[in-house]
Design goal:
Number of helices: 5
Distance between the termini: 57 Å
Radius of gyration: 23 Å
Structural class: mainly alpha
Shape: flat
Largest sheet: none
Number of strands: 0
Helix content: 55-70%
């Protein structure tokens, strides 16, 4: 990729990074404060349960957005380092050039569109399997009802 394109993408990345950091600094709803403080009510006791549910949902949504912004900032930092190492714009899986239009839309992307689809399909297939709890919960004493079963 040409030097002028690299600088264009660097400026896009820095602009996006500043936007995400500003959002992290200004949107503090639901973090470290009670629902009473957020709503301005004297008590949450007399509120309808639906109102409390809505406030809880909004707080969780903001928390999720904040985590997403932090992840994007990390990806932006990685992309800027790739520009410095002159490896920006290459797919991390197949090492082919990532389409410029894709980079303009998502300048911190790590994969070309084909590899992104394969990566997402793989994640989806992994999630479709057995319940996640089975990875961490084992039967007591390392045994289960299937120990003596004929397979």
């Amino acid at each position: 990729m040409k030097k002028q394109h690299m600088e264009l993408f660097r400026s896009l990345l820095l602009k996006e990074r500043i936007n995400k950091i500003n959002s992290l600094n200004t949107e503090k709803i639901g973090l470290g404060s009670s629902i009473k403080d957020d709503t301005g009510e004297l008590s949450s006791y007399d509120n309808h349960p639906g109102d409390l549910g809505t406030e809880t949902f909004e707080a969780e949504k903001n928390y999720s957005f904040r985590n997403n912004y932090k992840t994007i900032i990390e990806l932006i930092d990685i992309a800027i380092k790739k520009i410095d190492d002159e490896k920006y714009g290459l797919c991390e899986i197949c090492n082919k050039d990532i389409d410029r239009n894709r980079l303009k839309l998502i300048p911190y992307t790590r994969f070309c569109i084909e590899c992104e689809k394969k990566y997402n399909n793989k994640l989806f297939e992994e999630e479709k399997g057995r319940p996640i709890e089975e990875k961490v919960i084992t039967p007591p004493f390392g045994r289960s009802f299937r120990d003596n079963a004929l397979d």
